[in-house]
């Protein structure tokens, strides 16, 4: 499968996918029909630098999907997009929130557009490391897993691997929250 | 997905989605309690699992009674030592407008689809919290988003989604995960019994243009019960061919 992404999260997720038997490649060097899935990671789980994350991510996704379509077999393929739980709203991280929300809407649109072609498009949501920002007292500034263990990159890889599997053909346009319950209590997470 | 040495209780496992989940878990290494109102069907599925080399026991169970769950959990403890995974799958459908809905149908739908989840979740929590581990999976329905003639069915399934989210929050700190699956159109005897024009119309509204299978749902249930989903709790996982994104209601005036 092809991995489109940047940063350390993408690298660690790729490692987790390789451990699960996926042949992960970073560039488009597969032939027609050889590509089974695409992971799009725009790097939204990395602490934001206040940049323009929202500007280019949908274009990145669209481009990755367009390139992949030519190389998926006739029966279809899998696209998984990794976004941040900040999509539910995150103070001082509006760019990451907006980029994540935009990608969810784009994924749902692509799922409708590509449904009949056997291509599924889904989202995996992870937690953005908030780091030591100055919004500590603001509602929603810091979100944590409710479970008594940390959420690791390998957990994201496990969820991505599930959605990439050929048996996940009937799951498309969905948002899988890998946040240990940190997305609950939001009207956008049901 | 790996389920080795886990003990799973699946209600409504004598046929359809429940049977597929029971088979999937057993094939992945779990020990499975096949519970169903129809004892004969439960026996058949458990026997099939055993023939395939798996470990399974059958229990005749009425999910509308607490005693049914008590007996089933007791059977699980006796046969396999406890319960690691509970799948509240047993359910009933209701089709028809609210003007024709009678009290008996309403109460029966609530009892089978919702009270069963209450009994099952409560007993599972008592079993799992002391061990600081466990997974509960409730089978809801995409129909909880609302649909024609689905007043009772959608209301109870919506309650299952809501209950799942509340319980996920309550049990998270104990390491017990609670999720639900919302299947869309699935190839079951009910679907097969519909008239062809009705089936055609339903399929037209499917983004994937395909009908799901019980095995599609079982695959999702296998993921949610497995260590691969250790970061996932409170999730409503739609297995619906994308229909939850948007389904166009019928034209005005119909």
Short note summarizing the structure:
The complex is a heterodimer of chains A (190) and B (254). Chain A is of the alpha/beta class.
Please tag this protein with its features.
heterodimer; A: 190 residues; alpha/beta; Rossmann fold; five-stranded parallel β-sheet; 4 helices; 33% helix; B: 254 residues; seven-stranded parallel β-sheet; 8 helices; 7 strands; globular
Commentary on this structure:
The complex is a heterodimer of chains A (190) and B (254). Chain A has a five-stranded parallel beta sheet, sandwiched between helices. With 190 residues, chain A is of the alpha/beta class. Chain A starts with a strand and ends in a 13-residue tail after the last strand. In chain A, helix 1 (7-19) crosses helix 4 (153-164). Chain A contains four helices and five strands, in the order βαβαβαβαβ. Chain A has a single domain (2-177), classed as 3-Layer(aba) Sandwich (Rossmann fold). Chain B has 254 residues and is α/β, with parallel strands linked by helices. Chain B has a single domain, classed as Rossmann fold. Chain B is built from eight helices and seven strands, in the order βαβαβαβαβαβαααβ. In chain B, strands 3-2-1-4-5-6-7 form a seven-stranded parallel beta sheet, sandwiched between helices. In chain B, strand 1, helix 1 (16-27) and strand 2 form a beta-alpha-beta unit. The relative contact order of chain B is 0.14. The model of chain B has no long low-confidence stretch (mean pLDDT 94). The A-B interface holds A 108, 111-112, 115-116, 118, 120, 145-149, 151-152, 155-156, 158-159, 161-162, 165, 167-174, 176-181, 183-185, 189-190 and B 1, 132, 161, 165, 168-169, 172-175, 177, 184, 206-210, 212-213, 215-216, 219-220, 223, 227-242, 244-246.
């Amino acid at each position: 499968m092809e991995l489109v992404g940047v940063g350390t999260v993408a690298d660690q997720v790729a490692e987790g996918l390789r451990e699960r038997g996926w042949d992960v490649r970073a560039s488009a060097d597969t032939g027609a029909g050889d590509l089974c899935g695409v992971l799009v990671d725009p790097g939204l789980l990395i602490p934001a630098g206040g940049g323009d994350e929202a500007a280019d991510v949908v274009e990145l996704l669209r481009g990755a999907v367009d390139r992949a379509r030519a190389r998926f077999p006739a029966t279809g393929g899998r696209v998984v997009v990794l976004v941040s739980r900040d999509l539910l709203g995150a103070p001082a991280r509006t760019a990451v929130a907006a980029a994540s929300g935009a990608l969810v809407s784009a994924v749902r649109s692509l799922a409708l557009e590509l449904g009949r072609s056997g291509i599924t498009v889904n989202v995996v949501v992870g937690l953005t490391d908030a780091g030591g920002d100055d919004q500590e007292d603001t509602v929603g500034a810091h979100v944590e897993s409710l479970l008594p263990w940390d959420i690791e990159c390998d957990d994201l890889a496990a969820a991505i691997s599930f959605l990439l599997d050929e048996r996940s053909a009937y799951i498309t346009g969905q948002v899988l929250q890998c946040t240990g319950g940190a997305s609950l209590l939001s009207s956008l997470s049901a | 997905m790996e389920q080795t040495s886990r003990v799973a209780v699946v209600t409504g496992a004598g046929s359809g989605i429940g049977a597929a989940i029971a088979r999937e878990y057993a094939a992945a290494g779990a020990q499975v309690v096949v519970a169903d109102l129809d004892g004969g069907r439960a026996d058949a599925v458990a026997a099939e699992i055993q023939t395939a080399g798996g470990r399974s026991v059958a229990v005749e169970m009425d999910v509308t009674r607490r005693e049914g769950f008590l007996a089933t959990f007791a059977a699980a403890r006796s046969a396999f030592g406890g319960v690691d995974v509970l799948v509240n799958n047993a359910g009933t459908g209701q089709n028809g407008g609210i003007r024709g809905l009678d009290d008996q149908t309403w109460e029966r739908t609530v009892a089978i689809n919702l009270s069963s989840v209450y009994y099952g979740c409560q007993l599972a929590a008592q079993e799992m919290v002391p061990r600081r581990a466990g997974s509960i999976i409730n089978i809801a329905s995409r129909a909880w988003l609302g649909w024609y003639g689905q007043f009772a069915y959608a209301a109870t399934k919506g309650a299952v989604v809501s209950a799942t989210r509340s319980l996920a929050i309550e049990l998270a700190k104990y390491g017990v995960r609670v999720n639900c699956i919302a299947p869309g159109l699935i190839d079951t005897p009910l679907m097969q019994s519909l008239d062809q024009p009705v089936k055609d119309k339903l399929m037209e509204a499917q983004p994937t243009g395909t009908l799901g299978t019980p095995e599609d749902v079982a695959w999702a249930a296998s993921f949610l019960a497995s260590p691969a989903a250790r970061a996932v709790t409170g999730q409503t996982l739609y297995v619906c061919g994308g229909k939850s994104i948007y389904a166009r209601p019928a034209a005005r005036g119909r």
